[in-house]
Task: inverse folding
């Protein structure tokens, strides 16, 4: 009896099974990693308030550090004395600003409460005028109803938060005191703190640690400087509009416009809303003058000044700026939206540094060393990441030039071969043409022979007829 043959394994099926098994393992790994990441973020979320307090304290110390260094060098006083002077001035100015803000808020709230019935009628009349101007047929907007809904929502929100005002005020003041104390310690012991942090970093990563420290300073300093300049210009512009038009509730309008301007990317258009709405409600006749003026100034800020400030501060593409804003807002809310962009700028610097290092590592060692040495001599004050970036660009340019030269040499070598091929083809065509001509000549010869034979026959016939 013949034993049954075992089925031959199908290699295609085995390969397909391995592929699906790999896909399943990858998906399971990603799923477990996301679960662990969510658990870690949930645990860290309980420390978010502490992290935010430490971050704000570091930010205050970072802002005041250049002022302390300037006083220390300019007036030849001790660093402790300079820190004391700076923090004393900061507390005095901060207290004066808080007092002015509280007094302005109280005055604006009292005026708003007294004038609210008349202001409400004016707002309703302005919205009805806009409704008549925006006649869209079936899609007629009901701005009055929308305003009433917003008013009711604000009334409920404020009514529920009035009882929490003392508690929130105490919490904010306590947080500010803690921030000031932490920032004072950070600034006073900054050198020792940085030295200890560098000591933790392994020696082989010391250069990367220096790059990180320098780029954090550049990114945050440049970003804050750019935002403060833009917010200051918007504040002056809003104050000028309030004074010229005579708008009420000036502190609320100015504060809302300045705070909106601090928001990257989306801030400039939002900063126009408070002054334009106030002018439209309280002095509609001035809107035709104020509206275009604000739009023109805002256009100059957004299209000329802001890109240059951001480019100097961050050196990032606008798409990365938008991504940093969105990711920061998703991760850390308002503070993430404000400071996610400089964080992304630091990460972008390290990413470009790693890419440039890989480009140099893939090049010839002798060529890489020569380029780096030449760049160090030409620009001795350049940072390591800048030298690496310039060296990578130069190496790529030289490699591109070498490839172009090799292609030209190959083309020159191929040209004679192409010419000889063309000559062989032309010779073959000539031989074919000559054969065709010989064949045609042979056919003509046969025709001539036949013609002579016909003439001879005709001559013989004529002779026979005469004979």
Result:
């Amino acid at each position: 009896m013949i034993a049954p043959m075992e089925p031959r394994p199908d290699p295609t099926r085995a390969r397909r099974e391995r592929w699906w098994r790999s896909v399943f393992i990858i998906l399971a790994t990603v799923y477990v990693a996301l679960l662990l990441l969510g658990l870690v973020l949930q645990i860290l979320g309980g420390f978010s308030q502490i992290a935010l307090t430490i971050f704000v304290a570091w930010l205050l110390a970072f802002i005041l550090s250049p002022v302390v260094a300037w006083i220390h060098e300019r007036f030849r006083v001790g660093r402790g004395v300079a820190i004391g002077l700076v923090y004393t001035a900061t507390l005095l100015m901060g207290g004066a600003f808080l007092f002015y803000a509280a007094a302005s808020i109280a005055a604006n709230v009292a005026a708003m409460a007294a004038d609210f019935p008349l202001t409400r009628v004016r707002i309703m009349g302005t919205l009805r005028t806009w409704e008549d101007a925006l006649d869209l047929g079936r899609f007629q907007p009901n701005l009055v109803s929308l305003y009433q809904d917003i008013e009711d929502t604000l009334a409920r929100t404020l009514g529920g938060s009035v009882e929490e005002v003392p508690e929130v005020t105490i919490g904010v003041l306590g947080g500010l005191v803690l921030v000031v104390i932490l920032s004072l310690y950070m600034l006073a012991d900054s050198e020792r703190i940085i030295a200890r942090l560098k000591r933790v970093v392994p020696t082989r990563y010391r250069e990367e640690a220096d790059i990180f420290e320098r780029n954090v300073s550049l990114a945050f300093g440049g970003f804050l400087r750019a935002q403060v300049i833009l917010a200051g210009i918007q504040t002056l512009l809003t104050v000028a509009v309030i004074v010229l038009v005579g708008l009420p509730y000036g502190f609320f309008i100015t504060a809302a416009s300045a705070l909106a301007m601090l928001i990257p990317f989306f801030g400039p258009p939002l900063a126009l809303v408070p002054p334009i709405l106030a002018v439209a409600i309280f002095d509609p006749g001035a809107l035709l003058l104020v509206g275009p003026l604000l739009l023109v100034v805002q256009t100059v800020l957004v299209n000329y000044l802001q890109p240059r400030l951001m480019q100097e501060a961050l050196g990032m593409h606008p798409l990365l700026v938008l991504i940093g804003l969105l990711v920061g807002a998703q991760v850390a809310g308002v503070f993430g939206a404000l400071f996610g962009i400089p964080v992304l700028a630091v990460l972008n610097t390290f990413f470009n540094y790693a890419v440039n290092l890989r480009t140099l590592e893939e090049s010839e060692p002798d060529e890489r060393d020569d380029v780096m040495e030449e760049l160090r001599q030409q620009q001795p004050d350049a940072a390591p990441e800048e030298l690496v970036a310039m060296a990578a660009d130069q190496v790529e340019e030289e490699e591109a030039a070498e490839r172009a030269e090799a292609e030209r040499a190959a083309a020159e070598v191929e040209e004679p071969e192409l010419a000889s091929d063309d000559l062989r083809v032309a010779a073959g065509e000539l031989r074919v043409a000559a054969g065709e001509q010989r064949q045609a000549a042979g056919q003509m010869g046969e025709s001539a022979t036949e013609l002579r034979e016909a003439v001879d026959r005709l001559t013989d016939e004529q002779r026979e007829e005469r004979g």
In short: Residues 384-466 form the longest helix (83 residues).
